[in-house]
Amino acid sequence: MKSATLLYLTTALACSSLLAVAQDQQPFKRQHLAIGPILGFNYGINGLNYGLGALYEFRPEKQLSFFAGLNYLQTRRSSSHQNIESFTGEIWKQHLTALNFGARYYANEFYFAGAIGLAYKNELLLGADGRKTPLDSGFGFYKSLSTGYALPISTHSIGEFEAGVYGVKESMNVGGTMRYKFGW
């Protein structure tokens, strides 16, 4: 009788300590949605760009995730850099919309990411009188390499700070983004 009671108490103590350890470790969120502004520099044409990015992330493992992103960027500059007959007030404008897919490797809160995708680039000239002259448009191969830091805000949300290179062949950018990411 004494050995059965001792075995029962030992088993109960071991199980309760395992449950206590399991409750202390927060499970990581497997799915996230994120949105945030993008700010960068287009070093192909020497112009600032800005835009907005959205991201869906699926994280099957704690150190690995896969994502899909949708980015919109706009670059504005005076038309003189394009060797176009420049009139007073003309502005060259480029829109870049990209759908991309990639992966991330996490090392604690830091991560490294790479993505490829399809981008649509549209360039036009805005005249001082309001006229819009189309210059170039078409699809291109989008690529991105970046590194970032994920700062936990609460149990359901994360702030991300990311810097890297991104764009299409004739319009590469260096820049960064800050995203608000929430998971479930």
Q: How is this structure best described in words?
A:
This protein is mainly beta and 184 residues long. It is built from one helix and eight strands. It has one helix spanning 2-24, and strands at 31-42, 47-58, 64-78, 91-107, 110-126, 132-152, 157-168, 171-183. Strands 1-2-3-4-5-6-7-8 form an eight-stranded antiparallel beta barrel. The longest helix is centred in the first third of the chain and has 23 residues, at 2-24. It is elongated. The model is unreliable at 18-25 (pLDDT under 50).
Strands, helices and their partners?
Blueprint: H1 2-24, E1 31-42, E2 47-58, E3 64-78, E4 91-107, E5 110-126, E6 132-152, E7 157-168, E8 171-183
Antiparallel strand pairs: 1-2, 1-8, 2-3, 3-4, 4-5, 5-6, 6-7, 7-8
Succession of helices and strands: HEEEEEEEE
* Largest sheet geometry: 8 strands, antiparallel, barrel
In total, the number of strands is: 8
Share of residues in helices: 10-25%
Q: What structural category do the secondary elements indicate?
A: mainly beta
**Oligomeric organization of the protein chains:** single chain
Strand content: over 45%
Gap from first CA to last CA: 49 Å
Shape: elongated
Runs with pLDDT <50, length 5+?
Answer: 18-25
Cα-based radius of gyration, to the nearest Å:
25 Å
Q: Give, in spatial order, the strands making up the sheet with the most strands.
A: 1-2-3-4-5-6-7-8
Please tell me the overall pLDDT: 84
Helix count, DSSP H or I runs of 4 or more residues: 1
